[in-house]
Every structure is written in structure tokens, then in C-alpha cells.
Amino acid sequence: MKALHVTLEGRVQGVGFRWHTRAEARALGLKGWVRNLDDGSVEAHIQGAESAVQELLDWLRSGPSGARVDECLVKDASPAEFLGFEIR
């Protein structure tokens, strides 16, 4: 099990970033959450099989169409109990 905390900066709000992230994460069988922050960035906790976490991380670096990711800050995180992947 791999867990990461990710912060994304750029044009990441108002482009469906959270909804697309949730859909991608669920398709990969990942658990965690994603949310907007007041400073205009998006924050996520993703966890699951290492290959699936890496696949979502690769996707997050560009995001959905209409998004522009200028910065992708990644930190290791401790796994937690989640029922699925949610938008907060």
C-alpha cells in the first residue's frame, strides 16, 4: 500500500479537477480524497496499490482538459481508513 499527499497549483479550480480526479481514482481502485484550498490550489490524499497511485499521480500532473498544472508537490503520507475516494 502506497499513500501520498499531493498539492497542485495552477489553473486547477473551476475546471472540474476534483470530479475528474475522483473518477480517475475510483477507476484505478484508489481510496482517499480531493479538495479545493482557499489559495486556489487543489489538495489530495491518494492511497492504494503502488502502480495505481503512480498512474493517478502521472495523470494529476496534467489534469483534465482546461486545467494547467504549474506545480505538483508530492509527499509520502500515512495510510488511513477510507471507504472509497471522495470530494471534500
- Secondary-structure-based class equals alpha+beta
Provide the succession of SSEs.
EHEEHEE
**Distance N to C terminus:** 22 Å
CATH-defined topology: Alpha-Beta Plaits
* Beta-strand proportion: 35-45%
Please work out how many helical segments DSSP would assign: 2
Q: Spans of 5+ residues with little confidence (pLDDT < 50)?
A: none
Catalytic activity: an acyl phosphate + H2O = a carboxylate + phosphate + H(+)
Enzyme class: hydrolase
Protein name: Acylphosphatase
InterPro entries: Acylphosphatase, Acylphosphatase-like_dom, Acylphosphatase-like_dom_sf, Acylphosphatase_CS
3D structure, described in words:
- The structure is a single chain.
- With 88 residues, the protein is α+β, with helices and mostly antiparallel strands.
- The chain starts with a strand and ends with a strand.
- The chain has a single domain, classed as Alpha-Beta Plaits, CATH 3.30.70.
Keywords:
88 residues; alpha+beta; Alpha-Beta Plaits; five-stranded mixed beta sheet; 2 helices; 25% helix; EC 3.6.1.7; acylphosphatase activity; Acylphosphatase
What is the element layout, followed by pairings?
Blueprint: E1 2-11, H1 17-27, E2 31-36, E3 42-48, H2 50-60, E4 68-76, E5 85-87
Parallel strand pairs: 2-5
Antiparallel strand pairs: 1-3, 1-4, 2-3
Family: Belongs to the acylphosphatase family.
Keywords: Hydrolase
Enzyme class: hydrolase
Short description:
The chain has 88 residues and is α+β, with helices and mostly antiparallel strands.
